[in-house]
Each structure stands twice: as C-alpha cells, then as structure tokens.
Automatic annotation (TrEMBL), chain A:
Source organism of the structure: Primorskyibacter flagellatus
Protein name: C-type cytochrome biogenesis protein CcmF
Single GO term (MF): heme binding
Transmembrane spans: 6-26, 47-68, 96-113, 125-144, 175-195, 207-229, 249-266, 273-292, 312-331, 352-374, 394-412, 424-442, 448-470, 491-510, 612-631
Cellular localisation: Cell inner membrane
TrEMBL record, chain B:
Cleaved signal peptide residues: 1-31
Organism: Primorskyibacter flagellatus
The keyword Kinase belongs to this UniProt entry's keyword annotation: no
InterPro entries per the UniProt record, alphabetical: C-type_cytochrome_biogenesis, CcmH/CycL/Ccl2/NrfF_N, CcmH/CycL/NrfF/Ccl2_sf
Pfam families, per the entry: CcmH
An individual GO BP term: cytochrome complex assembly
Protein name: Cytochrome c-type biogenesis protein
MF terms (GO), sorted A to Z: metal ion binding
Annotated family: Belongs to the CcmH/CycL/Ccl2/NrfF family.
One GO cellular component, as annotated: plasma membrane
Function: Possible subunit of a heme lyase.
Keywords: Cytochrome c-type biogenesis, Heme, Iron, Membrane, Metal-binding, Signal, Transmembrane, Transmembrane helix
Every CcmH/CycL/Ccl2/NrfF N-terminal domain range: 20-159
Length: 652, 161
C-alpha cells in the first residue's frame, strides 16, 4: 500500500512540477503577482511529495519488503540496518530518487531563503528549478521506476554490493548529489537572469552562496569517495582518473571557477557574460556526469546497448537544458556587457587568469574522458586514455594555478602596485624555496614530483598566512580576531589546496611497497618499520566470513600497533572484498593487505608505507571548512540583503 | 576480482546495473603476486612502471598492475618475459601493442588523429589567454561609467530590503 502511495506521490510531484514551471513563468512575464506567488507553495508541495516517496522507498528497504523489485535486487534481510538505509541510494533507481529529492530541496530553499529577491527573479528561479525537476521526474517514472512490484516475491534478496557496505561510501552519494544538484541553483539563477535580461552586482551576490554550498558538498563527496577507494580497494590508490571520477571532478573545477568569477561580478560588475556561461556549464557538467555514469557509454560502449532508453533520455535532458540555456545566452549576450575598469595588474586580471586555468583544466579532463568515444566514432581508432595521460596533461595547469594563487589573493582590485604584495610574500617565497632545496637534498635520484609538489604546497599554505596577515593592515595581530569570516574562509580553502598538493606529491613520490608470501611468525622490514605476522584466523561476521591476519607493527624495539587486515567473503553476493588495515599517522600511513593462502602454505601479504597520505583528505577537509566559513559570513548568507554592504566595493 | 572492485568504484555515482553486478562473481587472483616478482629489482621496477601504463582488457579502465583478473596476470608475466629476454621498454610496448592493439595503451600515442587530444589543452590555454588579454586590454582602456541614479536607487532598495 505504502509503495503505491509513494508511486502516486511521484506522479503528483510530476504534475506539481509542471505547474511550478509554467505558472510562475507566465506570471513573471505578465507581472501578475497571483501567478508568481504560485511558485512558493508549488516548490513546497514538490518537496513534500518527493520526500514522501523517498520515505516510502526507505520504508521498503528497512522492512525488507521483497515484493519491491528494487529491494529484492539490492538488499538482504541479514544486512546491517545502516546499509539497509543507505542501500536506498546504492542503486540506479533509488539514487535517482535521491537526486530528485535534493533538487526539490533546493527548489524549496530558493522559496524560503529568496524573500529578498525581486519577485519576478524569484518566481523565475523557482520555475526553472521546477522544470529540471519535471525532466528528472519524467525520467524516473518512465525509465527507472523504483516502485515496481514483483508478482512472486522471493524469500530473500540479492544483497547490496559488499563494496558499498561501508560507512565511507554510504554517505558519499548524498554529498556528491548535494553538490551536483546544488549547481542546478546556479543554473536556475543564470537562466532566470537571462530571461529577466539583467545581470548585476546583486545577482552575483545571490548566486555565490548557492555555488559555494554546492562546491563545499562536492568537495566533501569527492574526498569521501577518494578516501573510500584508498582504504577499501586494497592497494591504496586514491584517484584513478576514471570516467566516473572525472564526472564529479569537472563540475568541481567549473564550480571553483564560478565562485571566483561571481566575486568579480558582485564587486566590480565585470565578467558578467562569462560568469553566466560558467553557471550554465557547471550544471551542464553535472548532467553530463549523470549521463556518463548511468548510460555506461564511456566506460564501455557496449553497456549503452543494455539500456539505450535511459541513456537517450538523459542525453535528451542534457541537450534540452544546455541547448535552451545557451540559445537564451546568445540572444541576451549584449545585455551582459562589463562595466568595471581595471588595469592589467589587478585582482580582476588575476581572477581572469584563475578562470582560464580552471576552465582549461576542466576542458582537458573532459576531452580525455570522451576521447576514446570520439576517436572510435570519427577516426575508427579504438584506444584508451588512462591515468598517465591525465597526469601529464592536467598537472601543469594546476601547478601554474598554484604558482600565481598567493599573489592573486593579495592584489587589490582595479589598479595594483606590485611592491606591497611582493614584500608580503617574501617570507612565503623563501620558505617554499627552502622546502624545495631540502626535499631535493634528502631524496636521492628520484623524480621532481616531491620537490615541486612540496614547494608548491608550502607556497600556498604560507601564501594563505600572508594573505591573512595583509588583512590586518597596520594594526597587527590584534586585528586577526576581527577579520571577516570570508577572509578566514578564503585563506583556509587556499591553504587546504596546498595541503592536498603536499599529500599527493609526498605519497606518490615516496611510497614504498613490499609484496611477499608470509608464514605465521615471519616478519618483514619496510622503510624502517617491522611487521610480523602473528597469526591468521577465520571470523564469522554478520553477513560475511572473514580471514583475519594479526600483524604486530614495530619500529626498533618500540611496538606501535597491532593491525588486523581482513579478506572477507560475502556468500549472498558471492563476492570477496579486501579490508586493509591501516595505522594512520600524520607523516605516514602503514597499510597492510592480506591476500590468498598460497599453495606451499602462508599468505600473500602486501604492505605499504605511504608518506603524507592523510594530508590529501586533510586538505580537502580544510577546503570544505574554508568554503563553510565563507558561507557563514554575514555578507554572503543565503538570505543576505538584510544589512548594508560595509566594504564590499571599497577594497581599493 | 578487481574487475569487481572497480565496478564498485563505478557504483560510487549510484548506478549499479544488474548486468554489471553479474560480472562481480569472484575470481581469486590478487594484483601482483609474490611469485611474479623478478629477482632483479631494477628489471622488476621497469616491469611495474610498464604495467601501470597497460590496460587490463577484460576490466574497465584499470591497469594490469592493479588488476586481479587472470588476463592481467598473463600480461604481467608477458611483460616480465620480454624484459628478461632483453627487450627495451619500447620493444615491450610494441610487442604487446602488435598483439592486443592500441586499446591496451593507457597513454595514448601522439601520432595520427591523437595530436588533437594532446594539443587540445595547450591550444585552449593559448586561446584562453588570448581572449583574456583582449578582454583585459579593453577593460583597461574603458572609462568607468559608474551606476546611474536609477541603478543606485535599485541597489539601495535591494540591499535595504
């Protein structure tokens, strides 16, 4: 019964989305307040209906209702409760419903927090948001209905993929979707502004918090996914340049560019057309991401044939929204002329450079991701584009970005003189060069990766400190406490980027590895650490059987920890997983994986020392915190507008 | 089995297709095995580096060094065999490409239509810098218009609301 009600709620939501799209748009066009006012209740009703459908589906999973096809395929009665709940979005249909729920949530938030917006803009933003909901609800109902029943329910289900039964991955999709879908707000604002024919400082200020929130969620989502890959896949890789990862990385890059260009619109009334274009593209990449992950066209051309309907539907949605928005953009481009005047040496110019580098970096990822497809279709050449290409083609742009970032953050608006920023950055520069020299000296005969990475990271972190120091002006340290939160946010996020770069460079350049057969009682020495296998036993888990090794980790005579790597087997899914045991540290991780029993006795054991590994995710956390700090700044609150701008334009 | 692992990775974005899940059935090999490792560390290092640039043909976008598939193991052994026989890195890659096609290379070659791929990034950067330079030049020469009285009023209304 509840399932049918959930299904019915989705159909109602589709009808409400249609009203939410059409009525406010007509109302805004004709300035009819009554019609425009439909937007808010429609957005709220939409959220309630989709929320109810989501709750109904969750109920199906929690109670293991195997009359639902989706539950049968993706759940099992013995699964721990946490994974019954997260199993709701561990599959195509349920994750699409989550996507739509978040879409409705953002639409409703625009209604709640958008009281300060001009009524026509507000009505149009909510209407555009409704149109996206309309498209995806149609997609869900016509191609991926989660509420399909089975005529003969089985006694038990097929279980969720064991790899997904993990806390890191359980919460990865919701964050990622909050990011992907959050960018729909930037899109809706862009399209609404194009319909209005007006993009001004106020618009830049409204669109920024939404983009910032989406970017923060994307950062957390990507970091969670990367962290999960690190500890779960069994060899400690954290990024594979896989099409699916790229699908989340491209919107992240474009959102980062959009954040920075929206500042220029807000404070200097420049870069308007470009910012609107970025807002459209950012969501475009989210849509392309959905298409890539759900059609299977890129990873395997054949997977497309298994479900052409979904792929074609998503491609049509992408084409419709991108085509429509870009056509509108072309028609209204002349209304978006820039106003602010600035010289070559100014923060505006540096932000233009930032945008060029981020956009080109995203473009490189994009072309690398789709090239196998293009090459096969156009040149009849079947080839692969893998991690080595991306490492080579992408990294230089980020190195350039990192080099200019601290200077850009310190330059004043409009017209700058180099003397002051350069003076402020001298300590950071000296420190970075010292790190370069030191790193170069202590590592023998290896690549430039570590020296360059550590130098760049130090430069960014020290540059962020210089940035904060510069804001204190002449009044010194006492003023540090009274700085705007957005100043702290900016410095924290920039420092976070530096920390992540240090982590990536350190881990990739200095990791050491050992692969061998170990008997009980054997020990291995790796990079100064000793690891001995004390014993191996079989353990019965709630829905798996585990082979657990017990390793004593020591350095010299000092015992550091006992590590328990596992190899699990999930009988229902008939699938093994490896659970690495990791001794986390600030400067290094010790990472142990136990493999198969060998014919001559003993087990295959892989052990790694991974220097600076945790800095990668630590930096990501700092970036997210920086974004959140900035978001919490009074001036950028989502509902901002209650207060006058104290110094928004006066930074000269 | 790593085919399975990477399927899981792909499922990150939420799209586990039943047909895909069917592929997850266990095999029990596990990336580079202790018995594969060459006694000569220098040669072994070259083998590892080469393996990282070769695609496991039955997996999805995974190199043979990380892969647990049996075919990946065969390829790893082949790479080591060629190295022991005295091939240079290029000769090993040519040997494998001749048999498995260009698809096996994770670093696409620069020849032929692929110059488009390799040149795309730098070309975009040059184009972007060019457009950016023109834009900035125009901005430096323009004169500040400032807000009109009407706009000032509108801004005040919005900010005071």
């Amino acid at each position: 019964m509840l399932n049918e009600l959930g299904h019915f709620a989705l159909v109602l939501a589709l009808a409400v989305a249609l009203v939410q799209t059409v009525v406010p748009l007509i109302g805004a066009h004709n300035r009819w307040p009554g019609w425009m006012a439909v937007a808010e209740p429609a957005a709220n009703a939409q959220l309630l209906l989709v929320g109810f459908a989501f709750a109904a589906l969750t109920h199906g999973f929690v109670t293991s209702d195997f009359s639902l096809k989706l539950v049968t395929e993706n759940s099992h009665s013995l699964k721990p409760m946490l994974y019954k709940v997260t199993g709701v979005w561990g599959n195509h249909e349920g994750s699409m419903l989550l996507w739509i729920l978040i879409l409705a949530l953002f639409g409703a938030s625009a209604a709640w927090f958008g009281q300060a917006l001009p009524p026509t803009l507000r009505a149009r933003v909510i209407a555009v948001q409704g149109s996206i909901g309309l498209a995806f609800l149609a997609f869900l109902l016509f191609t991926s209905n989660p509420f399909l029943r089975l005529a003969v329910p089985p006694l038990d289900g097929g279980d969720l993929n064991p790899l997904l039964q993990d806390p890191g991955l359980a919460f990865h999709p919701p964050f990622l979707y909050l990011g992907y879908v959050g960018l729909s707000m930037a899109f809706s604002f862009a399209v609404a502004a194009l319909i209005e024919g007006r993009v001004d400082a106020a618009w830049g200020r409204w669109v920024r918090p939404w983009t910032l929130a989406a970017w923060v969620f994307l950062t957390i989502g990507i970091a969670l996914g990367s962290w999960w890959a690190y500890y779960e896949l069994g060899w400690g890789g954290f990024w594979f340049w896989d099409p699916v990862e790229n699908a989340s990385f491209m919107p992240w890059l474009i959102a980062a560019a959009l954040l920075h260009s929206a500042v220029v619109v807000e404070k200097r009334e420049s870069l308007k057309a470009w910012t609107v274009l970025l807002a459209i593209t950012a969501f475009g990449f989210s849509l392309i991401g959905a298409f890539i992950t759900r059609s299977g066209i890129i990873t395997s051309v054949h997977a497309f044939a298994t479900d052409p309907e979904r792929g074609v539907f998503l491609l049509a949605i992408t084409a419709l929204f991108m085509g429509g928005a870009l056509t509108l953009f072309a028609a209204r481009a002349e209304a978006l002329s820039s106003r602010g005047v600035f010289s070559l040496l100014s923060r505006e110019s540096m932000l233009v450079l930032n945008n060029i580098l981020l956009a080109v970096a995203a473009f490189v990822v994009f072309i690398g991701t789709i090239w196998p497809l293009v090459s096969e279709l156009l040149f009849d050449r079947k080839l692969s584009v893998g991690a080595p290409f991306f490492d080579m083609a992408f990294t230089p742009f980020f190195v350039l970005l990192g080099l200019v970032l601290p200077l850009g953050a310190l330059l004043p608006w409009k017209r700058a003189k180099l003397a002051r920023p350069v003076r402020l950055l001298i300590p950071a520069c000296v420190l970075a060069l010292a790190v370069l020299a030191l790193t170069f000296a202590i590592q023998t005969g290896r690549s430039a990766l570590a020296p360059v990475g550590l130098m760049l990271g130090t430069w960014l972190v020290a540059g962020a400190a210089a940035d904060l120091w510069a804001r204190t002006g002449t009044s010194g340290a006492a003023r540090l406490l009274r700085l705007q939160r957005s100043d702290y946010g900016r410095a924290t996020a920039h420092a976070g980027l530096g920390v992540t770069i240090i982590g990536i460079a350190g881990m990739l350049a200095w990791q050491s590895e050992d692969i061998r057969v170990m008997q009980e009682g054997d020990s291995v020495t790796l990079a100064g650490y000793t690891l001995s296998l004390d014993g191996v036993e079989r353990v019965q888990g709630p829905n798996y059987i585990s082979t657990t090794g017990s390793f004593a980790l020591s350095r010299g005579t000092r015992t550091i920890a006992t590590l328990y790597p596992e190899k699990r087997f999930y009988p229902v899914a008939r699938m093994p997983t490896t659970e690495a045991a990791i001794d986390n540290g600030i400067l290094r991780d010790i990472y142990v994986v136990i493999g198969d029993p060998q014919e001559g006795g003993g087990w295959a054991v892989r052990s790694y020392v991974k220097p600076l590994a945790n800095w990668i995710w630590g930096g990501a956390i700092l970036m997210a915190i920086g974004g959140a700090l900035s978001l919490s700044d009074r001036r950028y609150r989502v509902a901002a507008g209650a207060r006058k701008v104290p110094d928004a334009v006066a930074a000269e | 089995m790593t085919g399975g692992l990477r399927q899981g990775l792909r499922t990150i974005a939420g799209a586990a297709h039943p047909a895909v899940l069917a592929l997850l059935v266990a095999t029990s090999a596990h990336a580079v095995q202790p018995d594969e490792i060459l006694p000569d560390p220098a040669l072994e290092q070259r083998a590892r580096d080469l393996s990282k640039g070769l695609r496991c043909l039955v997996c999805r976008n995974e190199n043979i060094d990380d892969s647990n598939a049996d075919l990946a193991r065969d390829l790893r052994l082949l790479v080591r065999e060629r190295l022991v026989a005295g091939d240079t890195d290029e000769e090993v890659l040519d040997f494998i490409t001749d048999r498995y096609g260009e698809y096996v290379l994770l670093t696409p070659r620069t020849g032929g239509s692929n110059w488009l791929l390799w040149a795309a990034g730098p070309a975009m950067l040059v184009a972007g810098l060019g457009i950016g330079a023109v834009f900035i030049r125009r901005r430096t020469r323009a004169t500040e218009a400032g807000l009109s009285a009407e706009e000032e009023e509108r801004l005040r209304q919005i900010l005071d609301r």
